[in-house]
Amino acid sequence: MIKLPSIHIGKLSMLLAILVWLSLLFVDLVRLFGILNELESGIAQEFTWILEILFFLTVYFFYNYSINKNSQTDFLNLIWRAASTGIVAVIVSIMINLFYSLLGDSNLINEPFLRNFFYHVNFALISIFLISSALLWKHLILYQKSKRVVKQWQAYEFAMLAAMFFIFFNNNSLDYSFLFGLVILVSLGIILSANLKWIPYLTFREKWKSLLFLFIIIICCGYLFYQVLLFSDRSKFIVNLTDNLFLVSLFSFIFIYALFCFLVTLFNLPTSSVFEQKLTEAINFQRLSQSIQPEESEEQVLDILVDSCMSASYADAAWLELGDQDSTKGILQERFLGKDLKEELSELIQNQKVAQDWAVENRPENLEPLAIRLNHNRFESILLVPLVINKSAIGRMVLCKEVRDGFNKEMINIISTFVRQACIAVENHRLLNQAIQNERYQEELKIAQRVQKSLLPTKLDHNDSFDICAYSNAADEVGGDYYDTYKLDDDRYVLIIGDVSGKGTSAAFNMSQMKGIFQSLIQLNLSPAQFMIKANAALSRCLERNHFITASIFLINTAQKTVCHARAGHVPTLMHQVLDKKSDYLGIDGLGLGILRNKQYENHVEEKTFSYSSGDVLVLFTDGIVEAKNEKSQQFGFERIRTLLEVYHELSPKEIQTKIIDSLHAYVGGDGLIDDDYSIMVIKFS
Question: Is the distance from CB of 166 to CB of 246 less than 8 angstroms?
Answer without folding.
Answer: yes
